[in-house]
Design goal:
about 220 residues, mainly alpha
Amino acid sequence: MTKKEHVAERLYYILGALFIAALITCNLIANKFISIDLGFKTFVISAGVLPYPITFLITDILSELYGQKRTTHVVLSGLFASIFVLFILWLGAQFPAIEGSPIDDETFNQVFQNAWRVIAAYIVAQLIDVKLFHFWKRLTKGEMLWVRNNFSTVISQFVDTTLVVVILFFGVESWSTMGSYISDGWLFKVIFAALDTFIIYGFMAWARSYFKLKKGEEIEL
């Protein structure tokens, strides 16, 4: 195996590890809602949204560099890792908190009770994103990276945001309140998806130069 093949393989695993770490973090902190003032608007969003744009940036880079099959493997690995985390959370809930525990049973259950539903929503959105990315890639014949980077994220993020908000607040908040959470969360993600276009263009410029790739060409592992 050549040096560049080693680099390509290690990069794939590093990106995959970062994706899984960000995905699980999103799931664990999704129940907390916060407000962020960006000057032109104050967004009310789930704390899980903060690391979430990273997951879509990584899957877009993986899709562009390694193709749909390899990227889907990473997303499914994230699913299996998330299921393992859910098992650990379930296991932790089976034992009552001792007297004086910093976190009591009620708090523990309240924070993590929706984790399995949120994980399902995130995985669905990720798989949609990968499929849409490659749909646009085929349609543009490997050109216009900004189209697939943004359009795939815009659609999949709307699905993700809607599912998460409905899962967390159905029967608890009004439809108008849930609609406000959905619009804020989706717009926040779309803004950062547009901003990460500069990152993916810079990264792909380096990758194509280093690995001697043509536009649209993928690395085979």
